[in-house]
Specification:
The chain has 363 residues and is mostly helical. The chain has helices at residues 14-32, 35-55, 61-84, 104-120, 129-148, 152-169, 173-194, 197-207, 209-212, 219-230, 242-245, 257-290, 294-318, 336-362; strands at residues 86-88, 91-97, 100-102. The protein has a three-stranded antiparallel beta sheet, covered by helices on one side. A hairpin with a 2-residue loop joins strand 2 (91-97) and strand 3 (100-102).
Length: 363
């Protein structure tokens, strides 16, 4: 199950694209925080690259073989986290290891993708109602544990991942529409029985920011909008953004780093970030279309759906059109567990593309 690393099958478009994002991320993390976070980001990027190239040496089908075992192990970590995890501002999301923290929910995203891909890969004649039910169950269990932390943002990422993978696996349109209607039907239950008061206020903060700013729910949104708007076309220059420099903008190096980029680089260069992500997702679509092996295709679709959801939600909340849910911008925001999980997911995608090229060449 171990294969040699072949540079001719390596994706030489996607890899430098990621490197550009990483450089931009470090550049603005330094502007938004300090050298301590930059050094920690370098450590996580270094660990990420180690995992990235190490996992390229393995046949990606090895992940299919062990996917259920990995799924159960990460579920156990999520359970253990609720008991032994570090409590920060009333949440339990991290295990501390020295000066670093590990967030198991970040790894649950890729773990769920692997488990769903294994379960759905050989459903050649469409998905039955029982198949859809099992796939939903595989998703709901980790969602419930992540919501319990509470981390609603990470939990909600699992929903589009599930729907997209079901669609690619051949779910009937009737079932897909029914699933969507069911999601809408249970959403009021989330509001009344699951969501915490501060989460409700964040949603209200999008609808009525002026009325909720006194309670802090609209403060993040308003400060982010001021940062984005004050950047103009060309920006204030690196390190010169008033919202960033005067620390009016909260979570500048993580959730709101796009607002920092927009303030200091301006609208035109912020659009360059969007362009990078568009090319990134087009590469992912190309890999999925050229992959014939069902497990690999489903994994690629799941991974890029995960990344796309993060990008859309993060930028939308920076622009004030989505609630604040605490979600990083892939490969740009500071975040150890998020960065490492992203590198692992990316390595599997590169592995799939590499082997699909070999399979096509042998036909």
């Amino acid at each position: 199950m171990i294969s040699s690393f072949r540079t001719k099958n390596f994706d030489w478009i996607l890899f430098p694209l990621i490197c550009i994002m990483l450089i931009i991320g470090v550049y603005f993390i330094l502007s938004a925080s300090n050298e301590k976070y930059v050094m920690k980001q370098f450590v996580w990027i270094g660990i990420g690259f180690i995992f990235f190239f190490m996992l390229l040496s393995f046949d990606y089908l090895l992940f299919a073989y062990y996917s259920y075992i990995i799924y159960v192990c990460v579920l156990c970590l999520l359970l253990l986290l609720l008991i032994l995890g570090d409590s920060v501002k009333g949440t339990r999301r991290w295990f501390s290891i020295g000066s670093f923290s590990i967030q198991p929910a970040e790894f649950m995203k890729i773990t769920l993708i692997l488990a769903l891909a294994r379960f759905l890969r050989y459903k050649k004649y469409g998905l039955g109602l029982s198949d859809v039910g099992i796939a939903i169950l595989l998703t709901i269990v980790p969602m419930a544990l992540i919501i319990k932390q509470p981390d609603l943002g990470t939990a909600l990422i699992l929903v589009p991942v599930l729907i997209t993978m079901l669609y690619v696996a051949g779910i009937r349109i009737f079932y897909l529409i029914s699933l969507f209607c069911l999601s809408l039907a249970v959403s009021p239950l989330l509001w009344f029985f699951v969501m915490h008061p501060y989460q409700k206020m964040r949603i209200l903060g999008v609808l009525w920011p002026q009325k909720t700013s006194d309670w802090g729910a609209g403060y993040h949104r308003l400060q982010s909008l001021i940062a984005v708007g004050s950047g103009g076309l060309l920006g204030a220059g690196w390190g010169n953004g008033s919202q960033n420099r005067l620390k009016f903008l909260p979570e500048r190096h993580t959730d709101f780093i796009f607002a920092v980029i927009a303030e200091e680089w301006g609208f035109l260069r912020a659009c360059f970030i969007l362009f990078l992500y568009v090319v990134f997702f087009m590469c992912g679509l190309g890999i999925a279309r050229n992959t014939r092996e069902p497990f690999g295709r489903l994994v690629v679709v799941g991974v890029f759906t995960m990344f796309a959801t993060q990008v859309v939600v993060n930028i939308a909340m920076n622009l004030g059109i989505a609630p604040i849910v605490g979600m990083t911008l892939p490969f740009i925001s500071y975040g150890g567990s998020s960065m490492l999980a992203s590198f692992i997911a990316l390595s599997i995608v590169f592995n799939v593309k590499s082997r699909s090229k070999i399979d096509l060449a042998s036909e």
